[in-house]
């Protein structure tokens, strides 16, 4: 598995603790994040220092990328209790278009965190050539 903990994900995503958002909701998304990051930069299990820190950030951001559609879904079970807990508050949920833009921002942040370790892929580096 990767380096990020569910607490790292909760911290970066400003998510509630496990008493309000069960770990089982986030765990599959963290696993998906590790798989995607491995595709991007290869096996990083031996990373240390700054690379490890950036991998943690990327894993947490990718977990948010994967989890947001689930987190944006409103579960009506317990809505009366929820209303009593928070009092007068408007609930705002994102449209599919807004959600996709937010998800892409998390993915972009993850890519930015590990960009220097990503393979060149489709990038075409500029080299020096004799004319």
Please supply descriptive tags for the structure shown above:
131 residues, mainly alpha, 59% helix
Tell me briefly what this model is.
It contains 5 helices and no strands. It has helices spanning 6-13, 23-41, 49-71, 79-86, 96-114.
Describe the structure.
This protein has 131 residues and is mainly alpha-helical. It is globular. The protein starts with 5 loop residues before the first helix and ends in a 17-residue tail after the last helix. The relative contact order is 0.16. Helix 2 (23-41) packs across helix 3 and helix 3 packs antiparallel against helix 5 (96-114). The chain is built from five helices and no strands.
Query: Tally the helices: what do you get?
Result: 5
Shape descriptor reads globular
End-to-end Cα distance, whole Å, is: 49 Å
Would you list the SSEs in sequence order as H and E?
HHHHH
Q: Return the average pLDDT rounded to an integer.
A: 84
Based on secondary structure, the structural category is: mainly alpha
- Count all strands and give the number: 0
Helix content: 55-70%
Largest sheet, strands/sense/barrel: none
Radius of gyration: 18 Å
């Amino acid at each position: 598995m990767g380096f990020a903990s569910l607490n790292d994900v909760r911290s970066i995503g400003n998510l509630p603790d496990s008493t309000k958002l069960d770990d089982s909701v986030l765990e599959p998304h963290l696993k998906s994040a590790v798989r995607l990051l491995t595709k991007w930069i290869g096996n990083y299990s031996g990373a240390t220092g700054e690379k490890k820190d950036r991998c943690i950030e990327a894993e947490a951001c990718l977990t948010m990328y994967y989890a947001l559609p689930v987190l944006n879904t409103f579960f009506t079970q317990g809505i009366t209790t929820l209303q009593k807990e928070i009092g007068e508050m408007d609930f705002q949920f994102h449209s599919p278009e807004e959600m996709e833009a937010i998800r892409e921002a998390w993915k972009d942040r993850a890519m930015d965190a590990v960009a220097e370790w990503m393979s060149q892929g489709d990038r075409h580096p500029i080299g020096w050539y004799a004319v």
